[in-house]
Each structure stands twice: as C-alpha cells, then as structure tokens.
Amino acid sequence: MMVICKSNFFKGAVAILAAAPVAAAGVFTSASSAQAAQLVGEFSFASDPTVSATIKSDSVTFTNPKTFSINTGLSTGNFTGFTSGTINNITSFSAGTFVNPFLTLLGGTLSGSTFIGEAASYSVRQAATNLVAIDITTTGKFKNVLTNELSNGEGILTLQTGGRGLTAAAISSLLAGGGSVTTTFSGFYFGTPTATPTPEPATMLGLGLVGVGVAMSRRRKTLA
C-alpha cells in the first residue's frame, strides 16, 4: 500500500490553511459578516481507508463512495455547520483542470456550498518505513450557496500507500514514467486564507504568526 503526503507538518492527514494566519497579519473579518457572505475558516475530512484513489503524474481519480465525514470539532468560522462533503476528480495537474465543483459541503444552513478548483500540484515523501505519502495541494474559490459570494480557498489532500521496501523515490519514478498508484484516502484539510480574494494568499501558519508579531511591535512603538 502507498501513502501520499505533502510535508512532514501534515503527517497522516491532509492540511488546510485557515483564515487565522492572514487575519493575524492584519486582515480581520467579523464573524457576522463572514456568516452572511464569504466562507471563512477551516475544516477537515476524516480519513477513510475503505476509499481508494488512483493517482497518475497528471491526475487523481476517486472510486465511489466519495463522501467523507468532517471532523466537526476541528472546524472554524462558518464551516462549523458542515458535517460531510464530497470530492471530485482532478484531470490535469499541469492545466489545473478539475471536475468542478471539486468539493461540495453538506449539512447546516449553508449545505450545498462548493469549492471550485483552479490549480493543483502534488509531492511525494517518505512518511515512514515502508510508507509513502503523496500530498496534493489545491487552490481555488469557495462559493456560498446562499449568497453566491466567493472567497479564496486552499488545502492539502493526502493519500497514502505502503508495502515492504516501498520508497518515495520508487513512487516518484513510477509516476514520472507514466505509471499509476492506487492509494487510500488519508484526509483533507482545507480553509480560507482570507475573507477577501487575493492573488497570492498566505499559505503558511508561520507567516501569520510573524504578522502578529509585526503588528504588536508597531503598536508598542506607537504607544511609546
């Protein structure tokens, strides 16, 4: 079996970056306005080893079922009402071609809200001995089903596979040579880096924390 992951920070799960990093850097949005308009926050799909996906160098295809439970206790912002969601396929990493909506979120008053994929890429890493992880990074726009307003979204979908002697180098070589890998679904973390769409949303929590420090430093200087 193989494992697909993007970074050591998201070992065993897919990670989605939330509104918090950018908000901390100075982009603040009230909870009431976020609920009424753009989707802001983060959520994650729980892993499901019974669901498989086939990845090639330029695509990923899920087998049915493709509906996953949401880790409701980890959701933030106006993603807290969603209880499950479905994932579609990516037909071209290079061209950023998705079967859209790539995500459809279900449950709560905003049930039916979607994520429209725009770009995707993947990386392969050695998660553990005999275990390989492939992380698929996605970016695009969330669409509020009630208001049709859009907000930037980004996240990491994690697939995994393993076997005796299995290495990330072997998987990378297989994919590069036109082969395919059947994986299990490990998880998907997703979120909105900011309430207002921006060309290049922040993608690291550390960046947001740096923003907090800069803002606090400036405030201290002003008060002084």
Notes on the structure:
18% of the residues lie in helices and 39% in strands. The chain is of the alpha+beta class. Strands 1, 2, 3, 4, 5, 6, 9, 10, 11, 12 and 13 form an eleven-stranded antiparallel β-sheet that branches. A two-stranded antiparallel sheet has the order 7-8. The longest helix is centred in the C-terminal third of the chain and has 19 residues, at 205-223. It is globular and about 50 Å long. The model is unreliable at 1-35 and 195-223 (pLDDT under 50).
List the helices and strands and how they pair.
Blueprint: E1 3-4, H1 19-24, H2 31-36, E2 42-45, E3 48-56, E4 59-62, E5 67-69, E6 84-87, E7 90-92, E8 97-98, E9 103-106, E10 114-128, E11 131-143, E12 150-162, H3 168-176, E13 181-191, H4 205-223
In DSSP terms (H or I, runs of 4 or more residues), the helix count works out at 4
List unreliable stretches of 5+ residues: 1-35, 195-223
- Euclidean distance between termini CA atoms: 60 Å
Question: Using DSSP, what is the number of strands?
Answer: 13
Helix content: 10-25%
Radius of gyration, in angstroms, nearest whole number? 18 Å
H and E order:
EHHEEEEEEEEEEEHEH
How would a textbook summarize the main sheet?
11 strands, antiparallel
Overall form: globular
Range of strand content: 35-45%
What's the mean pLDDT score? 77
Tell me the structural class: alpha+beta
